[in-house]
UniProtKB/TrEMBL annotation:
Coiled-coil boundaries: none
Name recorded for this polypeptide: UPF0145 protein GRI32_06070
SUPFAM superfamilies found in the cross-reference section: YbjQ-like (SSF117782)
InterPro entries: UPF0145_dom_sf, UPF0145_YbjQ-like
Top-level taxonomic group: Bacteria
Amino acid sequence: MIVTTTPTIEGRPIQEYLGVITGEVIVGANIFRDMFANIRDIVGGRSGSYERILADAREQAIQELQAASATRGGNAVVGVDLDYEVIGKTGSMLMVSVSGTAVRI
C-alpha cells in the first residue's frame, strides 16, 4: 500500500476518496530507559533506546493507518501527517498519531 505525505501520487490517478483515517500508538516510558537517557543528557550523545521505541511506535501507527484504509476499501493513503505528543500527568507516555486520507487508486 502506498502511504505518502503528498496530496497525489504521480502517475496514479485517485479514483475515489474514502475519508480521513488515523492511527495512534501510546507507549509508556520505562524507569531504566529513563535513567540511562538522563545519563545521556548529562554526558551527551543519542538515546538509542528512545529512538528504537519511537521508531517502533511510528511504524505501528502507520500500520494502523494502512489497516484503516484497507477497511474502507482503499489501497493507498495520501496527505499523511505524523505528530508526536508527550502525555500523562508526569509526561511519562509518548503518543504517536498519524492521519491521512484513504483513497483508491
